[in-house]
Amino acid sequence: MAKGTAPEGIPVRKLYTGAEMPAIGLGTFGSDKYSAAQVAEAVYGAVRSGYRLIDCASVYQNEKEIGKAFAKLFSDGIVDREELFITGKVWNDMHGDGQVIRSCRKSLEELGLSYLDLYLIHWPFPNYHAPGCGGDSRNPDSRPFSAKEYMGVWRQCEELVESGLVKHIGMSNMTVKKLEAVLPLCRIRPAAIEMELHPAFQQPELFRYVTERGIVPIGFCPIGSPSRPERDRTPEDVAAAELPEIRKAAEAHQVHPAVICLKWAVQRGQVPIPFSVKESQYVDNLRGILEDPLTEEEMEQIRLADKNCRLVKGQVFLWPGAEDWRLLWDEEP
Fold it and tell me: Against a cut of 0.90, is the pTM above it?
């Protein structure tokens, strides 16, 4: 692929600053099943194949290896830094005074970058859990969401923008109730909000809330996260790719059901960030959103197929006395 060449016609999302964000990216959360080296190799291959958005996070424990992939992409002349849109996230154990800025600087150092295009608060509370822990793991220091605490983290994110270390800031794993508490307090508004989004969990209320305010929704688990950690699996989970409506569309378009999930996501207006270390999969994922769009009827059938099935429940973040993961999401148990 020629230097700086992205696939013809790849859509973009406009952030409120006027900056453009690719409408599909590559996720890098694979630490439960894949090595950092494997993820970094996928990053290199995906960018070489045309991806321009890479979603990173400090807790994924692979930023140093991904940084080496970026360096090789730049030295090999495949892309310039300005052609990429790179996201980072501050983890829950770095919410204290000055810690957000230190965490961002460490990520930049490991990624070998001078700035990030987007920096997110990974979870809206400082409830830490060890990487790879089980679903019944609990930290006795965990506590409920506090708008005051959250704004202390957000103020540091605003400092990152003002110092030039990041171009935009955003949020992740939020609810309408939490957003209503903090958005009026923001000096610099969030450019994007990352949330679980797939055909079996469409979050229409939250999706509408953020898009009406000019915030770009980024969807994780866009194909239903078949490789998510065991701690997040329950018997009642619904696999998005197994929905009859998805299967029917996949047969009609002669593609894998995962590609239908991504077509739906991009056509709906969110930015999916599927993860794969397999070249055939991430290439097909990218190609799939560029051709043969879903019909209006198919989009409506998938809209009606929503099962309200949250896959990443986050129960490891529960505080003492809280027994149901729905409390994390401001839902009644």
Answer: yes
